[in-house]
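Project standup — Tuesday

K.O.: blocked on the structure for the chain from last sprint. Re-posting the sequence here as requested.
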Amino acid sequence: MVNKTSEYTRVNTMPILQVNLLEGRSDEQKEALIEELTAACVKALNAPKESVRVMLNEMPKQNFGIGGHSAKKLGK
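H.V.: unblocked you, prediction finished:
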């Protein structure tokens, strides 16, 4: 019988998830997002929880454009 966790570690590198977000979410919301994304990665990839990395990249609303206007100008 093959241990799927050890098989994953031998064959693959750690999953690294990058999420781009507009600024404005609370620390609690970001913690919840990290937890949920990690759980999804463990379930979908059979990755060990300890191997999952999540990077949240927050950007100012002024630095994100939608239809020729910044998200800040559009009130997003």
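K.O.: great, moving the ticket to review. The first helix runs from residue 4 to 11. The radius of gyration is 17 Å.
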